[in-house]
Design a protein that fits this description.
Number of strands: 0
Strand content: under 5%
Number of helices: 6
Bound molecules: flavin-adenine dinucleotide
Shape: globular
Order of helices and strands: HHHHHH
Number of domains: 2
Distance between the termini: 56 Å
Length: 155
């Protein structure tokens, strides 16, 4: 049988030179969450009106972009968020296990630390807003703790 192969089309000189080149390098499966969530459309409008905008939308005449935007809006509700987050979580956990296996198989080393992640919330409202995420983590057996101020200091 002829060998099967894949062709990678890449506009840069090598792979991994764009977004993958300079991200925060956190590999936290439990953090995986869709951008499309309840409350995101209102937030997006606020972001667009800010002086130092974290979001910019160029109104291009690109049907694919508008179709994607409409699909995203249609997913900004609790039901879709829960379905999408649980799918992303399963995929992220699978990827994490593949990475562990790759490390074991190849012995590659990098500045890796596995001490968990501390996520801080400035307000009680923000903390209360994590209810759906916390429920999904609990359902999928992802270990987590909700800490108060003293707990954070100890951690
Ligand atoms: C500031 C920042 C911090 C982040 N931190 C984290 C983090 O801590 N943990 C985490 O898990 N994720 C993080 N992310 C997200 C993560 O980096 C991205 O989801 C991931 O790198 C996307 O990988 P990719 O292969 O899809 O895209 P890319 O790495 O951007 O690869 C896309 C490739 O397609 C090529 N390409 C584009 N258009 C064309 C074309 N027309 N023809 C040919 N080639 C083309 C590009 O040159 C590029 O090489 C972060 C992102 C950002 C921006």
């Amino acid at each position: 049988m002829p060998a099967t192969g894949s062709t990678v089309l890449e506009r840069r000189d090598g792979a991994g030179l764009e977004t993958s080149f300079a991200n925060c390098r956190r590999g936290v499966a439990g953090y995986s969450a869709p951008w499309a969530g309840p409350g995101v459309p209102a937030k997006a409008v606020r972001w667009l009106l800010m002086r130092h905008r974290p979001l910019v939308i160029w109104p291009l005449a690109d049907w694919a972009m508008w179709r994607w935007g409409l699909a995203m809006l249609a997913n900004c509700n609790e039901r879709a968020y829960e379905v999408n987050k649980s799918r992303m979580l399963r995929l992220a956990e699978y990827s994490r296990d593949c990475l562990r296996q790759l490390r074991a198989d190849t012995g590659i080393e990098y500045d890796e630390r596995a001490q968990g992640t501390l996520q801080l919330f400035r307000t009680q409202k923000q903390l209360d807003g994590t209810g759906a995420d916390v429920e999904i983590l609990r359902r999928f057996g992802v270990p987590f703790e909700v800490l108060d101020r003293d707990g954070c200091i100890k951690a």
